Amino acid sequence: MMKDYLAEFATWISQASSLTNGDPRLETQLPPKADLTPMDTAPYHGNPRLGFLYQELCRRHFEQHPDYDVIAEEIQLQQDKKTLGAIDFLIGNKRQSTLEHWEVAIKFYLLKDNRWYGPNAKDRLDMKLSRMLEHQLMMSDTDAFKDQFPDLAPNSKHLLMQGRLYVNPFHFEPVPKQCLGFDLDENNIAGFWCYQKDITKLTEPMYTLPKHLWATGFSGTKPKALTSWPEHFVHCQSESGQFWFIVPNDWPESSM
Fold it and tell me: How does 161-184 read in b/e, with b if 16+ C-beta sit within 10 Å?
């Protein structure tokens, strides 16, 4: 079962578009493969958090791509005994004989008062995008990186942020077309969210999604439909396949 799921998630990653575009550093997708190399569906035994699984499947994509090599992954950088962060990937582009710095992320955001909040509202799309562009991608220019890798100098920087954007159908507000001046891909505005007080307006059975299925949803047997709602947020998929977040009535303030 897990092997089948990994293949489905890997396919989603290879086909899904980025949340944002409009900057040379913002990739719309992972580099496509022209061949039909079977996907690497070897079991995954690493950290079960969604972000780690996502990064692992991105690594496998690069490893299987005939034009790329994974030179290094998850490079921890420190300076003056302080942690600067980690670089996701250094990728060798064999076709161009260049070195690329890649950062990848999978995120889910809900529109509220013209801002895109994560279900944990401490996370926001504008803050995440700013940090990725102005901090994460800049780490390969730091003295800490140059000291640790004096023979490596990336020729280009690349950010891929995939996921899904959610709007509330019961509380209409205009949907922004940009974030920080970068265009939002309207194809990713593909989910709904609502408060617990509005669940009586839902007309279909809802099924809780475990985190490893947040991107792809169910493809087989669903669990028992939800009949009660926890106090925290829950990510669901309806009988017809629609993605939903159900959040507490005092969200986003309650999770900030």
Answer: bbbbbbbbeeeeeeeeeebeebeb
Q: Are strands 189-195 and 156-167 parallel, antiparallel or unpaired?
A: parallel
Name the token pair of 236. Answer: 């669901």
Beta-bridge partners for 111: 116
**Structure tokens, 34:** 């022209």
For 49-66, the pLDDT digits (tens) are 999 999 999 999 999 999
Split into its structural domains, the chain has a count of 1
Per-residue pLDDT at 220: 77
Q: Where in the sequence is the domain holding 93, given as residue range(s)?
A: 2-255
* Residue 176 near residue 122 (C-beta atoms within 8 A): no
% pLDDT > 90, the chain? 81
DSSP character string of 18-70: PSEESSTTB-SSSPPPSS-PPP------S--SHHHHHHHHHHHHHHH-TTEEE
d(CA 237, CA 222): 10
